[in-house]
Amino acid sequence: YKAARRQAATLLYKLYRAARGSDRDFAGLRFVQVGEDLIKAEQTAALESLDPAARDAANGVVLRARQLTDALLSVSGPDPDKAEAFLTAIDTVTAYHAIDISKSLPELTFRRLQIAVIRNNTPAIDRCVDQLRAMTGPYTDAADRLLYRRAQRLLEAAPTDTSAAREVVRFGVRVLDA
């Protein structure tokens, strides 16, 4: 049963990634339904012991939580609370099993940035931006585009706000450079 659920989650995630428009939202929500149940079981197994099977379950949690945060934050109705819970699950199992996730840090930081933007949490946004600036790669560029779109929305809402205009220029220049 667990193997079948893992396979179903893998297939649903691939469908979600390949889908466009409203089909993407539907596929993302279907994946979240299956993946959420699976990650709970994997997290329980990961935190039961330090044996190889538990470590495999912990690696499964990391993979599935990354996929789930992608789906939860990329659909038209994002769910930052669930996404944050999955990021916490990653932190928990990686600390328990001393798993190196340094290669995934740009992605995880970008997901935290998405959550901060959804919540309009300026201190968290600034913290994530600073962390991403220390890294390079596609998530840094994606962060610039995300923050540029946010700045545009803020400027459209308040056309006389000079701080919003500065943000449009700040991130617009970075987007153009990329």
SSE ordering: HHHHHHHH
Helix content: over 70%
* Poorly predicted sequence stretches spanning 5 or more consecutive residues: none
Number of strands: 0
Work out the strand percent.
under 5%
* Biggest sheet overview: none
Which value, in Å, is the CA radius of gyration?
Answer: 18 Å
Q: Give the termini distance in whole angstroms.
A: 46 Å
SS-based class: mainly alpha
Question: Shape from CA axes?
Answer: globular
What's the average pLDDT? 92
Count of helical regions: 8
Question: What would the keywords be for this entry?
Answer:
single chain, mainly alpha, 8 helices, globular
Describe it.
With 178 residues, this protein is mainly α. The chain has 8 helices and no strands. α5 packs antiparallel against α6 (122-133). The radius of gyration is 18 Å and the shape is globular.
